[in-house]
Design goal:
single chain, 480 residues, alpha+beta, 28 strands
């Protein structure tokens, strides 16, 4: 199992948030496939058997491709101009892009930047990480990113200069500087960027500020950076060898095969029906017994506050009668990229399930009982698969009850305190041959409900491992 970092992007926030569990077998492909524009969650269990954990629905790599188009580097060759690089800036509407021509006659450099000034209370998250925030605002602050030939490919994948409002061109520390702000920054909680260009010494410095950091504070950080430039340990030829055509072709072939498998979907008879058992991790069996939609949370039999994972998140979204308040949703069309915002009503979905333990676990090993609601579509060939469109709340709504479609309530929580609660609330120890029947509750957008039944959605139990190329779906009713 690999330890990985959750990256949250308001306007491509390079911010470490938390560490959560993922099967090693699919980690590399999942990392490449997940939409880097969206929030990611991972977890790691300490020792013992690896436990499956929820993962974001897959999105095509178009998002990574879009970001890559916004910063480009020319092929290997010699540039006529003096210095390490020259740049071309192109701004069309609210999209900004940078292209660089690099002088490969010069030896590549390595760059480090440390702040001589930080806003009050900010400190480095981890030595050498370049990420700074306060204890009160974990994960929200300033990130320093030196860019040179050594990490330009990585930056091409993650830099996103869309939705630009203004580019202020100025000079900071004797370098050309671009101060970039974004449209409707407060609503969408976009951050801000300052780019410092130093073609003479061979680097670009990016200062990224989270939406909570005032632009004046960011300018002070940029003006007081302590920058160290040293000769790199590799030649350009060495870098070129490490990314040769044969390796790229092999990677492209592997990616193509991954997407072919991820896109194949499942037939209706491969989706477990209500009342049928599904074999999951270590041969355990889970069965969906009952499904019902409610307008009010308080009408659901067995609901108590003890089973809610995060009451502070839940309560502000409840009316006095237990119905759910509407929220503002962004719908992104996968094919066109078009975004539509709408006020969305929400219902509550109750699912009763039974988990049977068919493997003997140690005293500290638990079974995942939770599940995620997955939007699916029936395709022309009759197969079903995850939809590729996005349905996400406007960031300033701070609405998280439906993150990854995960249930927010379980009737049989075992771990109720501290770190154990935070990481394992939906896990429970079961002895060999033990069965447990329990209730999960989900918040679901009203457009998934028709005539009181869930449509165009299935469950994916955490205990299945959530393989993107071999999904195990459980039906919530008839699939049309």
């Amino acid at each position: 199992m690999k330890k990985v970092n959750q990256q949250i992007r308001g306007k491509e926030e390079l911010v470490l948030m938390q560490e959560l569990p993922i099967p090693e077998a699919t980690e590399d492909k999942i990392q490449a496939a997940y939409d880097i524009v969206r929030a990611r969650s991972r977890q790691k269990t300490e020792g013992g058997k690896v436990r499956p954990i929820r993962k974001r629905p897959l999105r095509r790599a178009w998002a990574a491709g879009l970001a890559a188009a916004l910063i480009a580097v020319s092929g290997f060759g010699v540039m006529a101009a003096a210095g390490y690089f020259s740049k071309t800036v192109n701004q069309e509407g609210n999209n900004l892009s940078y292209a660089f021509e690099v002088n490969y006659d010069l030896k590549p450099v390595e760059v480090k930047a440390v702040p001589g000034y930080l806003p009050e209370g900010m400190k480095e998250f981890e030595e050498g990480s370049g990420k700074y925030w306060t204890e009160e605002n974990y994960g929200h602050g300033i990130t320093l990113i030196p860019i040179s030939v050594f990490n330009i490919e990585e930056q091409k994948r993650i830099m996103d200069f869309s939705h630009v409002d203004q580019v202020e061109k100025t000079t900071i520390q004797g370098m050309e500087a671009h101060i970039i702000t974004y449209q409707e920054a407060e609503k969408y909680e976009w951050g801000k960027d300052i780019l410092l260009f130093n073609p003479e010494q061979g680097y670009v410095l990016r200062v990224y500020g989270d939406f909570i950091v005032p632009i004046e504070e960011m300018k002070q950080v940029a003006e007081n950076l302590q920058i160290t430039v040293t000769e790199g340990s590799m030649e350009y030829a060495d870098l070129e060898k490490g990314d040769d055509a044969e390796m790229r072709a092999a990677q492209e072939a592997a990616d193509e095969e991954f997407w072919r498998l991820a896109d194949k979907g499942v037939t209706a008879d491969q989706i477990t029906k209500v009342g049928e058992s599904l074999k999951v991790f270590d041969g355990n069996e889970v069965t969906v017994n009952k499904v019902q939609v409610y307008d009010s949370l308080y009408d659901i039999p067995g609901y108590t506050e003890d089973g809610a994972y995060d009451l502070e998140e839940l309560k502000p979204w409840l009316n006095a009668d237990g119905t759910h308040k509407p929220y503002q949703r962004i719908c992104t069309n996968y094919e066109t990229g078009e975004e539509m915002e709408e006020r969305t009503e929400v219902k509550f979905l109750m699912v009763e399930a039974t988990m049977k333990q068919n493997a003997e676990f140690g005293p500290d090993e638990d079974t995942a009982l939770d599940a995620c609601l997955v939007r699916v579509e029936k395709r022309a060939d009759g197969t079903w698969n995850r939809i590729k469109d996005d349905y996400l709340p406007v960031p300033s709504e701070h609405y998280r009850l439906q993150v990854d479609g995960r249930c927010f309530f379980i009737s049989v929580p075992e771990h109720l305190e501290g770190v154990k609660r935070a990481k394992s609330f939906f896990y429970r120890h079961l002895d060999l041959d033990e069965s447990i029947t329990y209730t999960m509750i989900f918040a679901v957008d009203a457009d998934l409900v028709k005539d009181g039944q869930i449509k165009d959605a299935v469950l994916c139990f955490n205990a299945t491992g959530n393989s993107p190329i071999d999904p195990q779906f459980s039906a919530l009713g008839a699939l049309e």
